[in-house]
Every structure is written in C-alpha cells, then in structure tokens.
Description:
The protein is mostly helical. It has helices spanning 2-45, 51-70, 75-89, 93-107.
Amino acid sequence: MRWQGVLAFVALLDWGQAAAADDLSQVRAIRSLAAEAAEIIRLQAQHRVTETYAREMKQQAREQLQSEAEGAQRPPLGQMAQQAIVALGRDDSNTLMRIVQQLLKMEGPHGRAD
C-alpha cells in the first residue's frame, strides 16, 4: 500500500514536469515565430526582401501561430499567439517584439534555447 502512494507521487511529479516542458516548448515556439515575423516586417520595410517572399513568410508565421493558439495548454499562451497574429496582420513589429520580451520573461531561469 505504501509503495502505491510513492508510485502515485512519482507519476504526479513526472506529469508536472512533462506539462512544464510542454509549456516551455510552446513559449519558445511562439517567441520564435513572433521574432521571425518581426524581422520579416523589418526587412520588408527596408526593401531587403521581395514582397512575394515577405507575404509568404508572414502567411506561414500566421498559420503556425494559429496552430499554437489552438493547441495552447494555458490560456495566456493562446492569447499571446492571437496577439501576435493581430500584430502580424498590422505589420506591427514593435508589438511583436514586446510579445517576444514577455515570452522571454515567461521562460524564466530556463533561458533561451536558441
């Protein structure tokens, strides 16, 4: 009986770590997509990429952010992905970079992986 309690506790710890790892993975994915979108907008404004390339890259970012928003385990992450989509639609690189900074803070002591 005692071992069952220990095993249940260990299983709960494993689940908590897996959930935290999923959150961290999603934070990093949304951060990366927002940063890439901000960079494409910046390069487009400087006429350093073609309109076709910028349009395609922004469409891909929008689709991936939508996927992240729909698959978000925690509502704040889904909301941040949605905010990034709106900012991307307005070509608002400043807002995208603010979202990136918020997500970096959410990563906490784990820091950047890239």
